Amino acid sequence: MNFSTMTLGIEFGSTRVKAVLIDQSFRVRAEGVYDWENSFEGGYWTYGHDEILTALQQSFAALSKQVCDKYGAPLTTVGAIGISAMMHGYIALDENDRFLVPFRTWRNTTTGDAAKKLTALFRFNIPERWSVAHLYQAMLNGEAHVKDIRALTTLAGYLHYRLTGVRTVGVGEAAGMFPIDDATCDYDKTMLAKFDALCGGYPWKLRDLLPEVRTAGQAAGTLTKEGALLLDPTGVLQPGIPLCPPEGDAGTGMVATNSVKPRTGNVSAGTSVFAMVVLERPLKNVYPEIDMVTTPDGSPVAMVHCNNCSADIDAWAAMLGGFAAQSGQSLTKGQVLDLIYNTALGGDADCGGLLSYNYLSGESITGVKTGVPLFLRPRGSALTFPNFARNLLFSALATLSIGMELLQKEQVAIDCLYGHGGFFKAANAGQRMMAAATGSPVTVMQTASVGGPWGMAILAMYLLEGGGLSLADYLAKRVFKDAAQTTVQPDPKDTAGFAQYKARYKQALPLEKTAQNVLYGEE
Question: Which residue has the higher pLDDT, 109 or 450?
Answer without folding.
Answer: 109
